[in-house]
TrEMBL record, chains A, B:
The name this protein goes by in its record: TetR family transcriptional regulator
Keyword Transferase (UniProt): no
Keywords, ordered alphabetically: DNA-binding
Compositionally biased tracts (Polar residues): 1-12
Organism: Microbispora catharanthi
Taxonomy, superkingdom: Bacteria
Amino acid sequence: MVSDASQANATEPTPARKRVRDPEARRAAILAAARSVFAERGYAKATIREIAQRAGVTHGLVVMHFSSKEQLFLAAVPGTRDLADSVQGDAEGLAGRVAHAYVARMESADSADPFIALVRSAAGDQEAAKALLRAMREESVSAYRTVLTGPDVALRVDLLGAHLIGVTFSRYVLADGPIAAMPADELTRYLTMTLDGILFGSTGTVRSSS
Amino acid sequence: MVSDASQANATEPTPARKRVRDPEARRAAILAAARSVFAERGYAKATIREIAQRAGVTHGLVVMHFSSKEQLFLAAVPGTRDLADSVQGDAEGLAGRVAHAYVARMESADSADPFIALVRSAAGDQEAAKALLRAMREESVSAYRTVLTGPDVALRVDLLGAHLIGVTFSRYVLADGPIAAMPADELTRYLTMTLDGILFGSTGTVRSSS
């Protein structure tokens, strides 16, 4: 996520309320402000206005840098772009890489984590949730297209996303039942299996007889 | 769901506000009242008190018949018990039967459908959602145990449930993207594949090289 030392330093989650002149530092201040506002308000209720105020910049500057609330969310929240990054590599290990990145990312997330907040608040503000999921889907699909071919890549990626939404619901939002109770490495193992089936399973035949 | 003609008639969703004497008719009146209250209020906000009032019976009688709000929900809402019924049969065709039952059930559901209302409101009242999902899970697992054996049946059934929750979210709640856009029979075909992978996939090995 972080490309150099100065940026790593600037993205410390301390909201900068004073005016910041350096463009890179200003961008980092916007990202830090966005993380704290998304965590406090949830995705649906967060506004670019409040993020701009907290970063000490104008509304217009935020829009210039990130174009929309969805894009700002994707840039600010660790994990959404990480998942897309984990796609890169051979098709063979794809399910395992995504399963591993998802579990590693979610296990260290706290309950105020914006991604969990999104799944929670998708129920409340459907239009906001729809816009965000659409942005995440587009980003995912273009990442997967670098590894996968076929007429139904977008559909399989959407099914994979739905699977992870359902697992997030059980393990990290409701936090109840066998999915919530299993150790993280076992979850990774099961997700590798299920995601592999979603990405590479045949839709023409059901399981051959056993 | 409906075992005889008199019950079919009695379960018409017209709330009976007058006192009903016949035990079978009274049970049917409670179910009809429950369906309308769950549809209007959502699962979390529905109360046994209001359901009893609308059915023209006492709170105690509802509890005597159904023991809890979760059990009443499972009995009243078409689809939750249908899914468990569809499990019966050979292991070979299991994924296909469940996929078919899920799609058939959800395609005819309207937006006030209590099952969709549950997935929506799980975000709001977590304790209520947890209790209901626990009841559904128990019912599902005992149905699947008649067909499947193995140490991880409960876990695989939970993963299958999570998958259907995620698909419900995309297609029937947010109603956006490739999963929402595909024809019902194609969805059945893809779900047969994904559910088969969840139920019978191997966790020991990832896909052999291709």
